Every structure is written in structure tokens, then in C-alpha cells.
Amino acid sequence: MNWDDTTDAAPAAERLVDPAAERLVDSAAERLVDSVADREDQAVEAALRPKDLNEFIGQEKVREQLDLVLRAARARGATADHVLLSGAPGLGKTTLSMIIAAEMGAPIRITSGPAIQHAGDLAAILSSLQEGEVLFLDEIHRMSRPAEEMLYMAMEDFRVDVIVGKGPGATAIPLELPPFTLVGATTRAGLLPPPLRDRFGFTAHMEFYEPAELERVIHRSARLLDVEIEPEGAAEIAGRSRGTPRIANRLLRRVRDYAQVKADGVITREIARAALAVYEVDSRGLDRLDRAVLEALLKLFGGGPVGLSTLAVAVGEERETVEEVAEPFLVREGLLARTPRGRIATPAAWAHLGLTPPRSATAGNGQQDLFGA
Ligand SMILES: Nc1ncnc2c1ncn2[C@@H]1O[C@H](COP(=O)(O)OP(=O)(O)O)[C@@H](O)[C@H]1O
Ligand SMILES: [Mg+2]
């Protein structure tokens, strides 16, 4: 067995700007269960976004807290505190930023960390804000250092120093900003430097959604898309949506297509099941790639431990694809574990694929020998 590639049990997720992940996002965009928006998502999401806090489904704690923050600011006639939204892609961060602006009756300006290459880019945006405007900074963890430092001052004192000229002759011209609300979004709250994190008055952690909440999302979207859906059909889609509204909405659209072509357009449980079988999204939301990884781990390596590179070769994929595209969900679902000795399958993985684990594989924690294999 290959032991040389097992030292990376800590995932590569800690890299700040991750070109490999960027490429993967592109190549994985065709996956039905990808939580990052593809072109079609972007086109339809505007129509599906809840417009105010009442319409926003789930995330009860976040909604309640945010409601208080915004109400209090409105009552004071003040601009709301800066808000940081953290959570996985597709959980509603962009939607919430727009809701914050709508609830405050304020315009919103949308930009993102990667779009701000130089401090000057940020200065240009900040200096053109209106009083009370919401500035939505998506992927705030990917902003450049100099821009970040300018942002500290802007958030705290509503002021920036604009540097004019170069070299020894350069001078800093202070510029007053109107009060504004920064809404930052990040998938990696842990990567934000503490001074930046501390400057947000309110931080909301978005959790994955419960199936019942996703059912409500699906019913709501079906209404907006003018699709007829039965409760069992919605439940079937919700269970395969990986806790993510964006995926739920995407699966709904694919099932709708199937229902229109193969049936009378109504989404029943049977139609949802048949459609998602065609699209290879299984009962737990695993797709072809996820299942291939799991199957290789179980059938070829007896449930592991096996090194990442070996596993990747076995499924004919890049290491990074296995590690960054397939594994995070498998780990989250408790189907696969990363250990210092390699990847191992959990008992739930055997059960999910309907296979019986060999007696020695069930311990899965390096203590197999104790059970006398
Ligand atoms: N709580 C929610 N209720 C209803 N729809 C939601 C909710 N959260 C997200 N969505 C839907 O999911 C899609 C993705 O949401 P978005 O705000 O773009 O996620 P993020 O910015 O976190 O990636 C949008 O189309 C939105 O309509
Ligand atoms: Mg977003």
C-alpha cells in the first residue's frame, strides 16, 4: 500500500488564494450538486431570491439577531453596523446582503475581494458611496493586504487616506466618507485577520439547512417558476440537496424539465426519483464522482486506509479533484474520514452503498488488529 501521500490529512483548504480550487470551480461547474453558482443559476437566482427577512427561510437565529440589529438602527435613524456573513456557498449570503439593504431602504453596491486588486480600487468605491449605502464585499477573505488595511480605517472612522504621487514625493490626503454599512461575506471566516473580524458589529454564521427547510425553499421556488409539485416530490428533492438552497433550486429545475418531457409536468415523488436517477444524484445527494470515490475506497481498498493519490488514480481523477470536490461532502456526511494513515470509510459508507464490510474494516480507527483479522 502507498503510504507516502498520507501526510496531508489536513485538507488544502487553508490556502488563502487557491488557484487549484479556482480551476476546480470552473471544471466542476457542470456538477449538478456543486454549491457554487453556474451561469444558469446566476440568471435565475435573481428571480428566486427572497426580498425581505420574512420571506427568508430557516436560519432562525441569524434572522432574529439581524432583525434586531436592523430594527434598532432604523429606530435610531442610523446606518446599520457592519455585518459579516460566513458560511458555505449557496446558503444565502448574497441574498441576505440584499435583504439588509432592502430592510434599511438603502441602495446596495456589490463587489468582491478578488475584484479589488489595489487599495486604489477600494478607495474609488468607498469615495463614491452615498450616505447609508450598503457595500457588499463578497469573498472578503480574498482581498489584497493593502486594500484590507484601507478598509480597517474606513470601517472604523469612515475615512480613507488617498495616496497621491509616488516615491518620496507621495502624500496621503485624508478623505471623509459618509457613514455606510459594510456587509462582508466569506466561506472561510477563520481566514479573516482578527483586526478585520473585530470591526464587524455583527457576525452571522450560516448553517446548512434542514430537509424541512429545504422543502419550503423548493415549494416557494416552484411557485415562482410556476411548477406544480407534490409534497412528496419536494421532500425527495430536499433530501438530495446537501443542505443547500442553491442546489435545491437547481435540482428542482432539472426535475421540472424531466416532468415536462416525460410526464404531465407535475413533480411527484416518482417523477423526482426517476429524474434524479437520470442525473445521477443519489438518495443522499451524492453524484457520480462522490460515488466513484466511495466505491473505490470500499471495493478496491476494503474501506482503507488508503493514500489520497492512490485513491485518485483508482477513480481516474486528479488528486485535487478528489480532495477538494468530492471529499468535503463525504466527510461532512460521515461517510469518509481523513486520518494520518490515509482515507477510511465509515460503517455508514458501507451501508449507503449496500455493501457488507469485511470484519477487519469495521473498526476503521487503526485498531483493526485488536479484533484479530
Ligand atoms: N433562506 C433562503 N430562503 C429561500 N431561498 C434561499 C435562501 N437562502 C438561499 N436561497 C436561494 O439560494 C440561492 C443561492 O443563494 P445566495 O444568496 O446566492 O447564496 P450565497 O451567496 O451564500 O452563495 C438563491 O437563489 C436564493 O434564492
Ligand atoms: Mg453569493
TrEMBL record:
Residues 210-280 are annotated as: Small ATPAse domain (RuvB-S). The lineage of its organism: Bacteria, Bacillati, Actinomycetota, Actinomycetes, Kitasatosporales. One of its GO terms (molecular function) is four-way junction helicase activity. This is Holliday junction branch migration complex subunit RuvB. It comes from Streptomyces echinoruber. Residues 29-209 are annotated as: Large ATPase domain (RuvB-L). Pfam families: AAA_lid_4, RuvB_N, WHD_RuvB. The gene is ruvB. Coiled coil: none annotated. Residues 79-210 form the AAA+ ATPase domain. Belongs to the RuvB family. It is found in: Cytoplasm.
